[in-house]
Amino acid sequence: MIDSLYIAWRYVSFNWARAMTLVACVTLIAVLPLSLELLLEESERQLLERAETTPLVVGAKGSELDLVMNSLYFGDTVPELISMAKLEQVRATGLAVPIPMYVRFKARGAPIVGTSLDYFDLRGLQIAQGRKFALLGEAVIGAAVATELGLEPGDDLLSSPETLFDLAGVYPLKMRIVGVLAPSNSADDLAVFVEVKTAWVVQGLVHGHQDLAEVTDPTLVMDRSDGKVTATAKVAQYTQITPENIDSFHFHGDPADYPITAVIALPYDRKAGAILRGRYVAAGADSDVLSGQITVPSDVVAELLANIFRIKSVLDAVILVVGLATALALVLVFALSLRLRQREIQTMFKLGCSRMMTARLLGAEILIILVASGVLTLLLLGVVSQFDEVLVRALFIR
């Protein structure tokens, strides 16, 4: 058998181009379905892990999937907005701790997540550099954002306008980066975190003006009387919050009416969570108390994964058909090879080789190709397994 393998190896190494083609075909047949299986398992783990650590999400009536994907994974689709009053309604029940989520704007492609410091405790996020945000206009960025954009504490990051032409006159906000998160291998690595009031500044709902009491430019002041100053439309809004102007930033209207995309509700225990869900169901769509919808993210993600695996079954069927076609092509290649090698086989017969010996030589060639394909397949699967978290975030979740 050793002699047969040696002769087969010499033949394969001499016809290396043909051998490499066969190895590549066999490897692709094996790697594609196995890699897909690894990536789907990792995506399921990441999606379920994040969903299971988020007990309940409260939002407006509409698509549960859009609400969950926006609140948990900062998806681009923004659900219908709710007001801050909904957060206070959850707090007033005494059943859960509410965390505001306002995921609508971006900064250089990264989602701006308006929330509170309770979010960091929920996700177990640690600060690698700097500190958490404490003042209006401060931001904490994820590890991937810091790496991709080359940012660190002390740098500034400009918010991006929602549209190319902002007719509302809301200027981009230059946010001061005060902290960088440690890598968490989750969607948090790709986000910019600010206090929810800072997100309202980005929207233009909270803003500051120049101190008109000290302004002498007549084009900025319309009238001065009784200690009151009336400004013209030329007064510019600040695009950066500094210690000198932070006191001038103020609300217009009732902050309870200001928008957020969702509320993450953290029940004190399972019983409190069940009672809270029951109250939302009993309240109905027409009630002002606990109106909207309350969603269990793990249920929504499980349904999403069920749809993904239905698609996977179709992909498996396609790969199976392609694999069978490739296997038949390989059989055809070996059959044609035998016909082309008739003179070689006749020479082996004349040298005294039996039919069994010839079959052993051909079998040894096939064995070498299959072993080489197996080794290459294991190496490729090892690479996929090593970087599956990054691949899932880049291909499926982001």
Cα separation of the termini:
53 Å
Number of strands: 16
Q: What percent of the residues sit in helical stretches (DSSP H or I)?
A: 40-55%
Q: What profile does the largest beta sheet have?
A: 10 strands, mixed
Strand content: 15-25%
Tally of alpha and pi helices: 12
Strand/helix succession:
HHEHEHEEHEEHEEEHEEEEEEHEHHHH
Mean pLDDT: 81
3D shape = elongated
**Uncertain segments of ≥5 residues (pLDDT<50)?**
none
| Rg over C-alpha atoms, rounded to the nearest angstrom | 32 Å
Helix/strand structural class: alpha+beta
Write the layout of secondary structure elements.
Elements (H helix, E strand, L loop, with lengths): L1 H13 L1 H37 L3 E4 L4 H10 L8 E2 H10 L2 E12 L2 E6 L2 H6 L3 E4 L7 E4 L1 H7 L6 E3 L15 E8 L10 E4 H8 L2 E2 L13 E5 L2 E4 L18 E2 L7 E2 L1 E6 L2 H14 L9 E3 L1 H44 L1 H9 L4 H32 L1 H10 L1
Parallel strand pairs: 4-9, 6-8
Antiparallel strand pairs: 1-15, 1-16, 2-14, 3-4, 3-15, 5-8, 6-9, 7-8, 10-13, 11-12
Helix pairs in contact: 1-11, 2-9, 2-11, 2-12, 3-9
